[in-house]
Design a protein that fits this description.
This protein has eight helices and four strands. It is of the alpha/beta class and 206 residues long. The protein has two domains: 121 residues, Rossmann fold (3-Layer(aba) Sandwich); 78 residues, no CATH class. It is globular and about 55 Å long.
Length: 206
């Protein structure tokens, strides 16, 4: 099975890395590839044509994933985002494709990384500085998940590179490391509705 993930961000960015990692864990036999489109407005503008091209080139399942935040000047909410995205999908003629799935993350990717305390503890800990982070049962309602991660890395001064970056959250380096430490059963992350939707999009018949 060939699975395409159309998302925000850039090639080799944290979005692509994290989505590919989790998708390969959920469907180990699948060939998974992410196709980042840049900003959220760019993703919404390109999504239909990109999905159409991917289906035509042999991908049997296409997921379009985006963060609810930031709003980019739009009214609040997933419903508005889906309405905006629908224009691109309809214009490309893929809006009714049975193997096209839409996954909105509340409120952004970093909410997934904040959910499981054991994963964060493993990444933030060092031999001389063990760290214990509790599960975040409301990670998908955090006002600013990325800021929360930045504060955790600053607090524990995690070395992720040379000064002055040392101790700061660097998404391209840290995000996939957190994802890799999420337990096999996905722990608290597996209880988030958006992650459950992500899993269904990869496994349900279409």
């Amino acid at each position: 099975m060939k699975v395409a993930i159309v998302c925000e961000g850039r090639l080799a960015g944290e979005d692509a890395q994290v989505y590919e990692h989790f998708a390969r864990r959920i469907v180990p036999g699948a060939a998974v590839k992410a196709f980042p489109q840049g900003t959220k407005p760019e993703l919404f503008a390109n999504a239909g044509d990109v999905a159409k091209t991917l289906f035509a080139s042999g991908y049997c399942r296409v997921l379009i994933i985006w963060d609810i935040e930031p709003r980019w000047g739009k009214p609040d909410g997933e419903l508005q985002d889906r309405q905006d995205l629908q224009v691109s999908l309809t214009n490309a003629g893929v809006d009714a494709h049975p193997c096209l799935y839409l996954v909105a993350i509340h409120k952004e990717l970093e909410a997934w990384l904040l959910a499981d305390g054991s994963a964060l503890s493993a990444v933030l800990s060092r031999p001389a500085h063990p760290v214990t982070i509790k599960d975040n049962k409301k990670a998908d309602t955090e006002a600013n998940p990325k800021k929360k991660l930045e504060q955790l890395f600053e607090k524990h001064n995690v070395p992720f590179g040379p000064q002055p970056a040392q101790g700061a959250y660097q998404p391209k380096l840290a995000a996939v490391r957190i994802a890799e430490k999420v337990p096999a059963n996905f722990g608290q992350l597996g209880k988030l509705k958006s992650f459950q939707q992500f899993g269904r999009s990869l496994t349900q018949a279409c």
